[in-house]
Design goal:
By secondary structure, the protein is an alpha/beta fold. 21% of the residues lie in helices and 32% in strands.
């Protein structure tokens, strides 16, 4: 018995903020939105997917952003992505370097921490 992969990452968001999620995850990060299954759509939130990368944003009552726990997303052009995020008003932060990776952090519109990584 072994874990063979990750199906999706779930992040929380406040109720009624789906458009802000779309603008960030699809508009800036370039991850297309996919339709939620009919039986889950009434709960609110948004799902995004590109290839095997799946991010589900679910509405959470009494929402608090994830400040430490975070997904780390790979990109092929970290510089261009961080420039686009900064131009849209998002603050980019750096952390200790990791061997073989350039990386930066950004908070989504709800304050959830997102790591962006590019292989050197």
């Amino acid at each position: 018995m072994a874990i063979t992969g990750i199906n999706h990452i779930q992040l929380a968001m406040p109720q009624g903020k789906e458009q802000a999620a779309r603008e960030f995850y699809h508009g800036l990060l370039g991850i297309p939105e996919v339709q939620k299954p009919e039986q889950l759509a009434a709960r609110g939130g948004c799902w995004f997917q590109i290839g095997n990368v799946r991010i589900h944003l679910g509405v959470e009552q009494n929402f608090l952003p994830a400040k430490k726990a975070h997904p780390a997303l790979l990109t092929d052009d970290l510089s261009a992505l961080t420039r686009a995020l900064e131009a849209a008003g998002y603050a980019i932060t750096e952390d200790q370097p990791l061997e073989r990776y350039d990386r930066r952090f950004v908070n989504d519109p709800f304050g959830n921490r997102i790591e962006l990584m590019q292989i050197k």
